[in-house]
Amino acid sequence: MKLRYLQIASSICITCCHLGMSHPALASQTYSKMLTKEYVVTKKNVNGTIVDKDGNPLIGVTIFEKGTDNGCITDFNGQYQLSLSNRDAVIVISYVGYKTQELKGDQLVEKIVLEEDAVALDELVVVGYAVQKKKELTGSTSSLKASDKKLSVTTSLDQMMQGNLSGVNITNASGMPGGAVRVSIRGVGSINGSNEPLFVIDGIPVSNSDNSGVNGRFGGSVQNPLSMLNPNDIESIDVLKDAAATAIYGSRATNGVVMVTTKRGKKGQRTTVNLSASYGLQSLPKEIEMADSDLYLTVRNEAVNNYNTQNNLKPGDNLYKTLEVNPRPGQPDTDWIDLITHDQAAVQNYEVSVSSGSEKTRFYSSLGYFDQEGIILTNRFRRYSLRTNVDHDISNAFQTGVSIALSKTINNRVPNDNVGNGIFTRSIEQRPFDVPFKEDGRYMIGGVDIPRHNGIQVLNEQKSKNEWYRVLANAYLTIKLLEGLEYKLSLSGDIRYSNDYLKLTKDHPYGSPKGEITDYRSMMQNYLIDNTLTYTKQIKDFNFTALGGYSMQEINTDASSIVGKDFPSSQFDYINAAGRINSASTTGGKNRLISTFFRLNMGYADRYLFTFSIRADGSSKFADGNQWGTFPSVSGAWRISNESFFPKDGIISDLKLRASWGMTGNQEGIGNYDSRSLANGGHNYNGQDGIAITTLANPDLKWEKSDQTNIGLDLSLFNDRVTVGMDYFIKNTKDLLYDRPLHTTTGFSSITQNIGSMRNTGFEFNVESHNIMNDRFSWDTQFNISTIKNKLTSLIDEKPIPVGNHVLQVGQPIGSFYMYKMDGIYQDNQEVPEKLYAKGVRAGDIKYADKDNDGDLTPADKEIVGKPLPDFFGGLTNRFRYGNFDLTIFNTFSVGNDVYATGMGGIDAVGHNNYGMRKDIAANRWTGPGTNNSIPRAMISTHNTQASTYLLHDGSYFKFKDVTLGYTLPSNLTQKLNISNMRVYLSAQNLWTISSYPGYDPEVSYSVNNSKTMGEDAMTVPQLRTFVCGFNLTF
């Protein structure tokens, strides 16, 4: 018997024929019989375009065959192609914001128009213990959805936020992998306390502090705890800014609240698998041109001759300086930065996620791996992440769910802080003719006559690694007790374990003669129980929602450290091989927070909205009488566009006016026991062991409190094609926490006190616009700008408090730069005041402003000369689509802030020391009257190296932060490949910076966690320029 296959249109006929059944008529008769007996196996290929009511293509619409996992999504032209199992198959078409449609295969038409779902189109915002429709909000919020950033490349939560949310300013500490950032909402909120917002991840309040311990002592870069989160898991970010939005979190909300919601499965969702991969190369964004050996020697020896001549020094005198010579004449100069860095450092990211949902059970699960080489040779950061979110409807009345996220990071650190061994800064300072090795192969310690290490030696003779393990988990149970009445129990935990390891061999410039190893381990356990009861009721045009809750939180910290020295060989990596234990210690702490809270939302006729909330927090950090704080808020909104008198056919489609007032608090940044006296053992007197008081009690210590008033306007134009948001706020903070220095006779260095108050005022503006929308081309724009003014309004004793190159002074912004003001260059000796001339100041030296007109240079001449905070900042995003191509251009900007180039003090000193020199400074120095009025002469003189505006620069910038070009494969091709969607892309990050700042990058702050000393550039590793290629696959 033979099998014969016959295809007619989309039907495949299988006939069984004996050898003699070859006659056409007989074959036709057999075919007819088989049709009657339904032996025909049929299938149907369907394709078309899905659009909205205006004919615009809808991208990413899900189309699948009901009861199967057979499906696809529309491409950038709204087109799809799907092969159905049979003609009678039912197709389900779903898209967020539109009603789901079910059609039989024979009902499909070439163009399908989806109908908007008025309820689903209401954007939801997470507001703390609940979600609200955006149009019903009375507080000030900014939101970012995952879909807004899906066309850009992001590797961390803070990178997603930067420049995309009004009122949120993000500053990077450096370009080190996993490096710390400063996130501030509506300006600086504290002097000594934390200025970080409260991060709430899937309902879990988490700390954004780095609990590792080796960084400060050994100069490793501070790690960003948010770098442990996989940004591809994030569904939305909602930033709560005013007191009406944040007061529900009470004592932790002064600096704002960032609500992070991760992805979850959805009801009726077919099983979807997403696979993404990317690979990129990173490099320094620019080069700082340094003087070559000839120019260096010319300037340095000019400084030496000026010094000897001016001081009448001759060979043999104690203070006589000898001229420098190049020990390697005719040899190429050494590029020290090139020696310690990669030309291009690799960065790669891989992730797979699966999501699905039935009517009862939904889940989302992901697995991610991120690997980033640092630009410095031994630096590398890796992140492993696993997340699973499951929700299940036990019945109509009971719902439960669990979220668990596991992550591990490995950070091979390098010294980067300015504590004497900052490898990047020290390498820039090396002289051009110095080399890393002597002729015999031994290390050249900083060259011929300068006692600095060389970077190659540090990298070879040091092993520094930090490992972080984190478990972030939440389980909940929701019970619908009555109609409109719901109880929710939530149990959460955030457990972090950190292990810092640092090995310095005997050949390390800062190590012990026989080597040393430090092992530091710490654990933080954060547990939380939330109980909430919510009641919702609608009575005709009146509706209200009441929320009441009780919360308990406990945070435990434990740490241990051990230092071993005198190892028999550099090959040993563990402390048990140490000849002696140099030190060992353990420490721990605990704090608790107990809270009750209530919120009432009311609305009438969708026009008048009102919200009241109050929270009472009790903290174990404070002494009796100050442990409890109460934080109320009240707000209202008027939807003017819903009034009968408002024109319905005008250009304004929605208009809402908002107003709010409330109080929030802050207890971060102080120790668990700062209100109490602490004693510690290990002390001795006259040979006797004993106990000593180590911390001075302050029973009057209390919360920092802020009251904030906000007025806002939400506006939609041209049928929601343009949306605008504006807010003006006044935020007053009192009882500022500060470690006030004490006189040495007290036996204590400082005491934590409430010392003053400050005010932040600001204006925020954001606009989103769909500029062009048609079936072939679209152009969308998002723009936000914020301006914030900060000033201290009171201080204890009303006296200024100098802090390094900064000052705390009433009436001035926090952290204002306080130093001498450069008034040009003395062009001849007659200009120099007598007192300064007597001190050795001559023509060519810096002229400082004589504030007190005494003809001398004293600390009394210091003045406020700038501020680290910008006048305004923001972001601009333009997204273009043409056919299957998409282009995203993302810009950030900051204007009006100053940067003090601390790390350039050595290389801009014009021969004062034997450091390498910036070519521009060396070549354009003052050499005679009228030659220069901004760069001093070459001279060994401490007069020209005073902290002054000589090193203070404008930190304004405009950045092309991200430019991404993508291409989505057409549906007819993805159908052949048996995939739903595929997009490939190329991305450039930190592509171009427009700025007058002479350093690597104006977007830097050495003291990211210290508001008193912001805006200083220690010349650490800058943010890197990155080129990435990748793809996203959906099955």
Compact description:
8% of the residues lie in helices and 47% in strands. It contains twelve helices and 53 strands.
Task: Give the SSE map.
Blueprint: E1 2-8, E2 11-17, H1 24-36, E3 41-42, E4 44-51, E5 62-65, E6 71-73, E7 79-84, E8 90-95, E9 98-104, E10 111-113, E11 124-126, E12 131-133, E13 141-145, H2 146-149, H3 157-161, E14 168-172, E15 181-185, E16 198-201, E17 204-206, H4 214-218, E18 234-240, H5 243-246, E19 257-262, E20 272-283, H6 293-310, H7 336-340, E21 345-357, E22 361-373, E23 380-393, E24 398-412, H8 423-428, H9 455-460, E25 462-482, E26 485-504, E27 516-539, E28 542-565, E29 580-604, E30 608-619, E31 628-639, E32 652-666, E33 678-685, E34 688-695, E35 704-717, E36 722-734, E37 737-741, E38 750-754, E39 756-773, E40 777-795, E41 801-803, E42 806-808, E43 816-819, E44 822-825, H10 834-838, E45 846-848, E46 863-866, E47 872-882, E48 885-895, E49 898-900, H11 919-923, E50 952-954, E51 957-968, H12 971-976, E52 981-994, E53 1025-1034
Parallel strand pairs: 4-10, 16-19
Antiparallel strand pairs: 1-2, 2-3, 4-7, 5-6, 5-8, 8-9, 11-12, 13-18, 14-15, 16-17, 18-19, 20-21, 20-53, 21-22, 22-23, 23-24, 24-25, 25-26, 26-27, 27-28, 28-29, 29-30, 30-31, 31-32, 32-35, 33-34, 35-36, 36-39, 37-38, 39-40, 40-47, 41-42, 42-43, 43-46, 44-45, 47-48, 48-51, 49-50, 51-52, 52-53
